[in-house]
Fold each of these.
Amino acid sequence: MNAVLFDYPKKAFFGKTIPKSKFYDHGNVSSKLKDLFVKQVEQITWLYKLAPETINVHATKDVPEIQVFEIELKGEDLSEEVLICIDKAVQFPIIFEIKSDVGIKTVCALKTRTNGDGWKTSYYMQSKVSPLSASRIQLDVVLSLNAIYEQIIRAVSLTKVQEGESLEDYVERGASIKSKSILIDGLKKKVYAEKQFNKKVELNSKLRIMVEELNHLLG
């Protein structure tokens, strides 16, 4: 994974701590999810607000604002359910900076409009963990929030860009690559553990097909 931490514009700094209970109050949050917030999350800080009034760029219907949230952990683990809950509660695209004793990383999902006024969220992409003192990448503050959002998503994702590919197609292909890679890893373990020759040959044949499919997705 790549190391990606952005140097966001100082004029977009917000720096407001958000009580975890704000997310509990949104919809039907299970007691199990509340426990995850309590056990895993030390503090949530709304670090930056990228919007026309803060960085003087054009908003779009798809990207009216971009929020940057820092989640400080109590340990090293953070359940994806916590991120999903926060994303559902906040009706704007969010870039997460996940901070723990071992370092900090950027995590985000592509958030797009549905046919109505709702949002749908892709799989979560994440960068490599960097030291807390690591230098940051200068954010290219271009003409629109849409372009800034795409810049961040493509930087965090490891997927190689294909010519003419839309951002949504790019992220969808990244999700397929992740899913296929997990299946391949599982199948490799089965091949290694299998003692019967005929079954091992059959599993290896399936594995070769999957690897070819993965290579096609990788381009």
Note: DSSP finds seven helices and eight strands in the chain.
Amino acid sequence: MKNIEIKTTQNVVLEYELADLRDRVIAFLIDAVCVTVAISILSVIGFAIFRFTGTIATVYSFFLSSIFMFYTLVMEVKNNGQSLGKMAMRIQVIKTAGGHATFSDYVARWIFRMIDIYFSFGGIACILIASSSKAQRIGDIVANTAVIKRVPKIDLKLRDLLAIHSKDSYKPVYLEAKKLVEEDVLLIKTTLDRYSKYRNDAHHEALSLLAQKVKEVLAIQSQLDDRRFLQTVMNDYVILTR
């Protein structure tokens, strides 16, 4: 499992899990199927139903070819780095320097698809994605982009939290914690885990920002430090919702 750390404009370092070769290959195949089905349907409509011929048929054929050629570029530009295949696999193109990729970045990735994927039958792309530290093909390297998972591979479940304390041995401190939803608590646990693993200023700032946000949402005050506060809120939620 490869990860990438990206520093935001607020100097907060965000850690993302990179999409692996399997995810990207499946996304590519899904896109290929979608494009093939779309072109097949449009071909039947144009040539079998409306029976286009002559100049109209030539223009229509050019239109169908354009769908194949520009599908990935248009989808990623219009859909913030995601094609249909990437949406299905929950992966996304982002800048390795932080922020969203620009139009020129997507164009660079699209141009080098010819070398990475089509001319080499995917061989170059597969080798580079599997071997490079940021799982980048040539197009990604040129555009300074990477493909990340929108949902981490290690999917935390609430049952993982139930072992924290038994109901008999723990008394909730913040009854307001029951207002949270499971996704909120999993975010707290992930932030605490990352802070424990990466003791740097960026993760400390992320911990503080999250603690402040939780206090605002629950409308509570606390004298505990940010780490103990979030740990307590998480424990309280588990006990109050069991």
Note: Strands lie at 3-7, 13-17, 91-95, 145-149.
